[in-house]
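Example record used in the benchmark description.
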Amino acid sequence: MEVNFSPELQAKIEKLVSETGCTVDDLAAYAFDGYLAQLPEVRETLDSRYDDIKSGRVKLIPGDEVFAALRAKSALRRAQQA
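Model output (structure tokens):
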């Protein structure tokens, strides 16, 4: 199998190879193994959340409201620290 990475990712991989002594093939195998091990749980979580939204058990919050609440919370915290 051949995989092409961006120069930035390639540099990170080469650094990790140098630091760990693992081969690129080993790192790729570890990464895919970890990804595939987590995939069923992630898929189950996403399916469950979709079902909750579709059934109306969970109310969606518009993004602008979420960001406004986060900005207000950050401003309050900064004011408390001052």
